[in-house]
Fold each of these.
Amino acid sequence: MIKMRELEKFEISVLNLCKDDKLREKLRNKMLKSKQPTDPFQLKKIENKIEKANKKIS
């Protein structure tokens, strides 16, 4: 079994932008599986993905 790590504050704040619960949970699990904190480039990609999903919901 993969040991999950705690999310950093900046990772949590990016996830909180997401309005879609399913997408938020999917991204959260993906972040938890990585052994190290998400780098700024990956965070920006995730943020763009969240913004796209939020536009579809609106």
Amino acid sequence: MKKHQAKRPAEKKHTPFIYRSFFNFWVAVVLPGTLLALVISKLYYDNTINFEPLNEPSTWLYFVILQIFTSFFSYIWVYSTKAKKYRE
């Protein structure tokens, strides 16, 4: 009788947290980046952070447009290519 030798399965590389789902990527990369851009471009004035522009609808519209733009292009250029690499 032949002895059956157990073959070890190849160790699977763990997918980093940010590439497990687009939501994780969005929370870890896109959201902080757009919040930082909002603070720098709209709220930072005269060496202080001023929260009065948050009352204006144009600030929130800017934030939403920036979220959509950044999410779309980061999905195409960053997330889809890196996630595909880790799934293989």
Amino acid sequence: MFCRLAAQELSLLSPRLSQENVRLVGIGLEELGVEEFVEKKFWAGELYIDEKKKSFNDLGYKRFSIWSLPGLLLSRIARSQAAKGRERGVGGDLRGDGYQNGGLLVVGKGGKVLYSFVQENPADHAANEDILKALNLSPAGGEQATVAPSSAATCGDGDVCSVKPKSPASE
């Protein structure tokens, strides 16, 4: 349910991003459930599947453990997002790999990472406001917000970006 809800919320930005010629690209980790995901229009952007999880590994997106996941699912954010999902009729699909965490990158022209978000909880997702700020866009199309580019991730000439690991001092 959390993946579907996050995709649905991010998809709310699709019209605004399209106006600005910004692509909305999602990378899933398996074919299982994709047909229903597409049919129910949880995602309004391009969708790719990375069954080998190369992009997830290269970006340093970790897997939740069998020991950490139950506690994370009982957290306040997970309970709140589950209630929101039920309210919206999103429904859940417990098939497949529920242990892989993910994230979000906003990549500007030339491959510069403007914003990086890494999931700490299965219910986490980047706030739409933060994504718009990274793109210097306001939600209503009015005044533009400005933010400094993220140094948490870098994108080079290769086919994938990489996320810099957190240092103990930055936590």
Amino acid sequence: MSRLIILFENLNSDVFIFRFSVFIKNKNKMFKNIIVTTGFLIGACLQAQIGISRESVTNGSVSLQFGDNENKGLLLPYVTDKTGITESGTILFDTSDNKVKYLKDVNTWFDLSVDATGTADLNIQATDRVEHPGAKICISPTLGGADTTQGILVLADDNKAMVLPKVANPHLNIISPSAGMIVYDTIKKQLAVYNGTVWSFWKP
């Protein structure tokens, strides 16, 4: 039988970028297909536990997990207008006020940045790129499942969760953080988000 292994590549010193290679192994051959950007994956649904910069996830309750102690963060989607977003649990970087936010309930956005001095360089989004509103990656319990949740990255399994990148003192060890970055601080045991100017830390 063939085995599907999904590996995400680190293409920047401080950010996990969602580009990946798919390896299909059998007894005699290995084929490698590099998908250059997730923009091509319109409606893609994956049945898997995914590890980025690691060979495996820690247990069966993990949907998506990042490499440990790499001093990299997860860069959230930049959104210029969030008025049409209705999926509770959505987390993003709002470029209208340069803050990391998540949707607690319909029309109830929670500000994770708090600080109002954030800044972001939107020139990283090339003008020649075509946006695909329906683009989506779904990690689902059913291969090719018909999940209807709206989002660019949807973790659809109801008994698994994502483990954020773990960084000790991210404000010291991530040398060039990007606005909209999110990590778990292993020293403070807190969620940390960066708004382009300062880090904000959260704990239960």
